[in-house]
Design goal:
CATH superfamily of the largest domain: CorA soluble domain-like
Strand order of the largest sheet: 2-1-3-7-6-5-4
Structural class: alpha+beta
Largest sheet: 7 strands, mixed
Shape: rod-shaped
């Protein structure tokens, strides 16, 4: 039978970068707020407007950002969603809607910490939408900026091909929903609520991966178990870096005295706050599970090593009598040793080499050493 050996299949585990890739670590931890990041201009910008009240809804895709200026004073609630960021477009629309220059800088920045800022006529908040990439087995982030003003909400997204607001768009098409009957602050709450609720979808996917790694560690049949644990702990860092600031962000809406926020909607923001607190607690639970799995993996490795060492020690002890007897009979002198040249001398030595280890095995077994 021809068996083709593939040593590279096993030697790759000895190459440390294959076990602990530093690229993902650099993506997560290399954030320096003192360095001005370079953002690439979006190739495509999609501007979509939902102008509505309890009776009517206008859904329109605009050709440019200047076409949305009329919705500042339309008399209805307007949601202006911009997919794809270009500096000129962001500055144009923000200047028309009286948005502060520092807010424009925050919108165009990358790797920002989730936060909330209040101005005289607007409330600005910035956070990340999270997605779980099944191919890369990693959490991806998309920064979204939301500006709440009198009767309008402007949202800026980086990626024009995905978001978490499709259920919200379906609600807007139903005239009897609470969303159609409330103001712009309720729309802002709904946006935050969908973002936070999608966090649980990401955590569910990550939880499935944690369960798979836990099975691998329990069975001890995967040499890359430690690398998988390390990778999952990196993804938990991403969750923690996003969840904790979002709690402060939502708390800012709850404690705000801005006239843009109605008192009757405070309870809805409190509901979002409860959800993000629950997500933070669940993240801590995941972290505890990962620490326990890492300890279990290390203990399994040590246990296997102890088993190997015990077997080697027993074999060494069993071979010691034969080594001693063979050494004695292998000496270069035979004076005054009567049975060196006897017929039964060889058989006696062989019997001793066999019987003494058997006796030792019986003694080890009686003591419970194996």
């Amino acid at each position: 039978m021809n068996v083709k050996l593939r040593p590279e299949k096993y030697l790759r585990y000895l190459y440390l970068p294959n076990l602990f890739t530093a690229k993902r670590t650099k993506e997560i931890l290399s954030v320096n707020p003192t360095v001005i990041p370079h953002r690439e201009e979006a190739k495509q910008v999609i501007v979509k407007v939902y102008d509505y009240d309890a009776e009517h809804l206008e859904e329109k895709t605009l050709e440019g950002v200047a076409d949305c200026f009329k919705y500042k004073t339309s008399g209805h609630v307007s949601w202006i969603n911009i997919d794809g960021l270009r500096k000129a477009d962001v500055e144009l629309i923000c200047n028309h809607f009286d948005v502060h220059a520092l807010v424009i800088e925050d919108i165009l920045s990358i790797n920002q910490r989730p936060k909330i800022d209040e101005a005289d006529t607007t409330i600005f908040c910035l956070l990340n939408m999270l997605y779980f990439n099944m191919d890369k087995q990693a959490i991806e982030q998309e920064q979204i900026s939301i500006i709440l003003g009198p009767d309008f909400v402007i949202s800026f997204q980086e990626d024009a091909h995905r978001d978490v607001f499709n259920p919200l768009r379906e609600k807007l098409k139903s005239p009897g929903t609470k969303l159609r009957q409330r103001g712009a602050d309720y729309l802002c709450y709904t946006l935050l609520d969908h973002i936070v609720d999608h966090y649980f979808v990401v955590m569910e996917r990550l939880g499935d991966k944690i369960e798979e790694v836990e099975v691998e560690v329990s069975h001890g049949n995967n040499p890359r178990a430690l690398a998988n644990i390390t990778q999952l702990r990196k993804e938990l860092i991403v969750l923690k870096r996003n969840f904790s600031p979002v709690r402060e962000l939502v708390n800012g809406f709850i404690r705000s005295d801005s006239p843009l926020l109605e008192d009757r909607h405070t309870k809805y923001y409190k509901d979002v706050y409860d959800h993000i607190v629950q997500a933070i607690d669940l993240t801590e639970n995941y972290r505890d599970v990962m620490v326990s799995m890492q300890d279990l993996h290390i203990n399994n490795v040590n246990l296997k090593m102890n088993e190997v060492m015990k077997v080697m020690a027993i074999v060494t002890c069993l071979l010691a009598p034969a080594t001693v007897i063979g050494g004695i009979f292998g000496m270069n002198f035979d004076e005054n040793v009567n049975f060196f040249h006897q017929r039964w001398g060889f058989y006696t030595a062989v019997c001793l080499m066999l019987l003494i280890p058997v006796g030792m095995l019986a003694a080890f077994r009686k003591r419970g050493w194996f």
